[in-house]
Each structure stands twice: as structure tokens, then as C-alpha cells.
Amino acid sequence: GTMTSYLQDAVGDAAGQIEVAVEDGLATVTLTRPDKHNAISFAMWEAFARVMPALGADDDVDVVLLRGIPGGPFSAGADIAEFRDLRSDVESAERYGEAVTSGERAIIACAKPTIAAVEGFAIGGGTQIAAACDLRVCGESSRFAVTPSRLGIVYALPSTARLVETVGAAWARWILLTGDQIDAGTALRIGLVHEVVADDEVVARSEQIATTLASRARVSLVGAKALIARAAGGRLVEDDDVRAVYHASLASNEYAEGVAAFLDKRPADFRTARRT
């Protein structure tokens, strides 16, 4: 996979900290700060806000996979070393918080399906990024935590809402009030991750899931993400925006191909249908 010019522009100041490659429909976003345990910098949060919409708009991208360095960690969380300079007063702290929220929101709002391949630990902002993705796979030795209570920070409402939507209010309370790490078994039990696999199988399994998603009808996946977000937010009225999602499906070549393939008793080829 190569990092095209539009992606290099999107990565911007986070060059060397995030790499983005697109190959055969799969966009892989890799956090690349091994010396800092993949701590997330202000520049990286800003880069997410540019990279994710760019990948969402790229017709060659079917699925986006977020991962850490090979073998882990996924991420140790925010780069606290930056806080003295970049969060030194209320005003700068608010600006920093806005960058975090924008980066997180861009992952959540990405039209394409997203998968977090969590090798090793995902602490603080690491769990935040993983939770912002649609699907999460982790290794048996993975650990998760959201740690604002260790820093005197209040987790932002959109981030809190995403956590509550993912694990429910009771476990959001446990995670945010204790700030303690939870292991892979607990993460699976409370719904923070969808699958736990052997540590050395995390990326392969995540790519396998990505292949499955890429074989599905994109119009269905994009529609499902949009409607799930609405339902999770309690917006249950079928308004004009929702009807537009339905119409996009019914008017699509993918719908025609899906029905034809079913009746012909053959696998649907949605990727070809999208291009015609």
C-alpha cells in the first residue's frame, strides 16, 4: 500500500506518528510512535480529523483498519508530556480538548466501516480511539482503561456517550470512576470488544473481518452505520434523511446485483456492481 499525496496532506504534522496505506480496498491507519508507546499527540488528533473524512470520501476504500505497531501496543493514551505546554491554562486546555473531540468524532462519523485491531494495551485515548471504531478485536493479553480520573480531567460528553453506548452506563461508571485497567476477558464480557484472539492473530483476524465487510454491499453498510447512530441517539423518526438512505439503496446497482445473485444462486459481486 502507498500513501498517496492526499493522505500525506491529511497526515500533515503527524508525519512519522501516523501512517496510512490503501491496498485493495483496505485502508490501514497505523500509529507509529514506538518510542512513546504510541502515545497520541495533539498533531495526531488533528490528523485523524483530516484523514478519516478523506478515507470516507475515497471511492477505492471499502474498510478502514486502525492499529498500533506490530505486536503492540495499540496506544498508551494521550501524550501527557505535551500537557504542560499545550494544556497549560484553561483556554489552551479547551483548544486541546476540541482537537481530541474532532479527531474522535471523525473516526465515529467515517461513512465506511472501521475496525480497531488492538494488540497489547489500549489505555486512555487508546481505548477512546478503539471505542470510536465500529468493530474491535483484541489479543488475550490486551488491557483497556479510560484514565481521566487519574489526571483531574473530566471525560468529554461525546466520548462519555460513546462509552455508554458501547458498554452501558453501569460499566461506563466502573471504567471512568475507577480508572483501572480491565483485561481482555472482561472487555469481551462487557461488550467493549467483539472478539478476543491469540495475541499474534489480532491483525490477521481483523483483516479477515475487513475482507468480509468489503464483500458486502457498501450502500447497506453506509446506511446501517447512519441508522444505528440515529437509533443509538434516540432519534427514531423516519425523516427525509432516513428516507434518502432507503432510496439510495433501492436505486443502487448493488441492490439489483444482490437480488439477481440470490435468484441465480450465486455469490453477489458488489464491488463490480459499485463500479458500473
Secondary structure elements and pairings:
Blueprint: H1 5-11, E1 18-23, E2 26-31, H2 42-57, E3 63-67, H3 83-86, H4 90-109, E4 114-118, E5 122-123, H5 125-132, E6 135-139, E7 143-145, H6 157-178, E8 182-183, H7 184-189, E9 195-197, H8 202-215, H9 218-232, H10 240-250, H11 253-263, H12 270-275
Parallel strand pairs: 2-3, 3-4, 4-6, 5-7, 6-9
Antiparallel strand pairs: 1-2, 7-8
Helix pairs in contact: 1-2, 2-4, 9-10
Keywords for this entry:
single chain; 276 residues; 12 helices; 9 strands
| Strand content bin | 5-15%
Distance between the termini: 25 Å
What is the helical fraction, as a range of percent? 40-55%
Largest sheet: 6 strands, mixed
Detail the poorly predicted runs. Answer: none
Query: How many strand units?
Result: 9
Residue-averaged pLDDT: 95
Strand order of the largest sheet: 1-2-3-4-6-9
Order of helices and strands: HEEHEHHEEHEEHEHEHHHHH
The dominant shape is globular
Judged by helices, strands and strand pairing, the structural class is alpha/beta
Rg, rounded, reads: 19 Å
Number of helices: 12
